Write the C-alpha cells for this entry.
Amino acid sequence: MKVNSLSAASLLTGLALAQDLYPGLTTVNHTCAIKPQLRSCPAQSPSSVDTCCTETFGGLILLTQFWSTYTGLEAQGQLLPRDTWTLHGLWPDFCNGSYTQYCDLRRQYDPVPSPNTTNGLPNGTVVPPYRGAPVSTFLEAFQRYDLLDYMNTYWVNQRASNNEFWAHEFSKHATCFSTFQLPCYGPRYQNHSDVIDYFETTIEYYRRFPTWGWLAQNNIRPSNTTQVTLSDVQGTLARASGATPYVGCSGPRYNETDAGRGGNDTGRTVISEAWYYMHVFGRPQEGVAIPVNATGSSSNCARARNALWYYQTTPGSIRS
Ligand SMILES: *[C@@H]1O[C@H](CO)[C@@H](O)[C@H](O)[C@H]1NC(C)=O
Ligand SMILES: *[C@@H]1O[C@H](CO)[C@@H](O)[C@H](O)[C@H]1NC(C)=O
Ligand SMILES: *[C@@H]1O[C@H](CO)[C@@H](O)[C@H](O)[C@H]1NC(C)=O
Ligand SMILES: *[C@@H]1O[C@H](CO)[C@@H](O)[C@H](O)[C@H]1NC(C)=O
Ligand SMILES: *[C@@H]1O[C@H](CO)[C@@H](O)[C@H](O)[C@H]1NC(C)=O
Ligand SMILES: *[C@@H]1O[C@H](CO)[C@@H](O)[C@H](O)[C@H]1NC(C)=O
Ligand SMILES: *[C@@H]1O[C@H](CO)[C@@H](O)[C@H](O)[C@H]1NC(C)=O
Ligand SMILES: *[C@@H]1O[C@H](CO)[C@@H](O)[C@H](O)[C@H]1NC(C)=O
Ligand SMILES: *[C@@H]1O[C@H](CO)[C@@H](O)[C@H](O)[C@H]1NC(C)=O
C-alpha cells in the first residue's frame, strides 16, 4: 500500500485516543440547511456551532492525487485510467497544517493499518488490523455498483488491492472529520452510510481537479525522454486551481543524479503526487470550498531547471 509522505505537514501526536471527537454529541437536530454555512478555518468553536454542519475538527481540507506509471496488480485487472491522475483521498488537516489519524477505532476497516498506532509512535494506541468483509461489500449493500465501478477506475492502489486503499483512507482520515461523525446521520443511520458518504464526497472534489488536463493544456505531458521544471508544473496547477498545491516527488534526490551531483538541491526527481488545499463553508459534503495555498513546504521535489521526470505510464498498465 502507498503511504503518503509527511513532508508537508507535521504529524500531531497524542490527540487520537478518543473514540468520539465530541463526547456527548446526540443524533438530534442536525438540519444543516437551516444553519449558517460557516467557514472551516480559522476553526469554529465546537461548543457554539453544530459540528455536524460546520467542519470544526479538521478544517483544512486536502484533495490528494497520485501520478503512477503502474499498479503492480495488472495481472488481476487492477489498471490505471488513461491520461488521468488517480485519486488518493480527502483529508481533514487542522487549520494550522498538522493532523491526526484513526480517530474512531470502531470504524476501523483498514486490513493493514499504516501507521499501526494512532499516533505513529510505538507507545500510541494500537490500530487493530480489520479482518471483516472488504469495503466493496458495503457499497454493494447500498446497490452502489456505479460508485464501485468509478472507484475501481479512478481510485487505484499500487501493489495492494483497491479495497485496502479505500478502507485505509476512510478509517485513517474520514473518522477525523466532525461532519462524518455517526450521530450526524440521525437515529436512522444505516450501517456504513458514512463510508458511502465519504467516498462520494471525496469523488465530488476529485472531479474538480483535472491535473493531467491542466498540465497538458500548458504543454506539460508525460515523457520518458524530456524533463520538466517544478515551477512550471506548480505554477500551471496554481493558476488553474486558484492556489498553490503541494507537489510531491519520489525517486532519487537531485544531488544524487548525474545532473545535480554534489549540489545543494536535495529534492526528489520523480513527480508522483499533488495535494490541493481548501477551506469549506458548511459541511464539506456540500462542496462549497475556496482554494488556499499549501501550508508549510509546498514541495519535496527538486527545484532546479528540468530536474523532474513526469513519466509516461506503462502501456500494459492502462485500462482500455
Ligand atoms: C431540537 O430542536 C427543538 C426545536 O427547536 C428544541 O426544542 C430542542 O431543544 C432541540 N434539542 C436538542 C437536543 O438540541
Ligand atoms: C494545531 O492545531 C491543533 C488542533 O487545534 C492543536 O491541537 C495543535 O496543538 C496545533 N499545533 C501546533 C503546532 O500549533
Ligand atoms: C508496528 O510496525 C512497526 C514497523 O513495521 C513494528 O516494528 C511494530 O512492531 C509494529 N507495532 C505493532 C503494535 O504492531
Ligand atoms: C511516547 O513516545 C514519544 C516519543 O518517543 C514521547 O515523546 C512521548 O512522551 C511518549 N508518550 C507517552 C504517553 O509515554
Ligand atoms: C455493521 O457492519 C459491521 C462491519 O463493518 C458488522 O460487524 C456489523 O455486524 C454490522 N452491523 C449491523 C447491524 O449489520
Ligand atoms: C544528497 O543530499 C542528502 C540529503 O541532504 C545527503 O544525505 C546526501 O549525502 C547527498 N548526496 C550527495 C551525493 O551529495
Ligand atoms: C544553492 O546554490 C545556489 C547556487 O550555487 C544558490 O544560489 C542557492 O542559494 C543555494 N541554496 C541553498 C538552499 O543553499
Ligand atoms: C498564494 O500565494 C501567492 C504567492 O505567495 C499569493 O499571491 C496568493 O494570494 C496566495 N493565494 C491564496 C489563495 O492565498
Ligand atoms: C516510462 O518510465 C517509467 C519509469 O521508469 C516506466 O515505469 C514506464 O513504463 C515508462 N513508460 C514508457 C511508455 O516507456
